[in-house]
Amino acid sequence: MDFDLTEEQSILKDSLDRLLAEHYGFEERRRIMASPEGWSGEMWGRYAEMGLLALPFAEADGGLGGSPVETMIVMEAFGKALALEPYLPTVVLGGSLIRFGGSDAQRAELVPAVAEGALKLAFAQGERNSRYDLHHVETTATRDGSGWRISGRKFVVLGGDSADRFFVTARTAGSARDEGGIGVFLVDAGAKGVSVRGYRTQDGQRGADVTFDGVAVGAEAAFGDPEGGLALARRAVDAAIAALSAEAIGAMAAMHALTVDYLKVRKQFGVPIGQFQVLQHKAVDMFVAIEQARSMAFYATSMADSDDAAERAAAIHAAKVEIGRGGRLAGENAIQLHGGVGMTMELAVGHYFKRVTMIDATFGDADHHLRALAAGGGLFQAA
Amino acid sequence: MDLRYTREELAFRDEVRAFLAANLPEDIRRRMLDGDYGSKDDLVTWSRILNARGWAVPHWPERYGGTGWDPMRQYIFLEETQKWPAPQPLAFGVNMVGPVIYTFGNAAQKAHYLPRIANLDDWWCQGFSEPGAGSDLASLRTRAVRDGDHYVVNGQKTWTTLAQYADWIFCLVRTDAEAKKQEGISFLLIDMKTPGIEVRPIVTIDGGREVNEVFFTDVRVPAENLVGEENKGWDYAKFLLGNERTNIARVGASKQRIARIRELAALEFAGGRPLIEDERFREKLAAVEIELKALELTQLRVVAADARRGSTGKPDPASSILKIKGSEIQQATTHLLMQVMGPHALPYHDHDLDGSNEPPIEPDYAGPAAPHYFNYRKVSIYGGSNEIQKNIIAKAVLGF
Question: Structure pTM?
Answer without folding.
Answer: 0.94
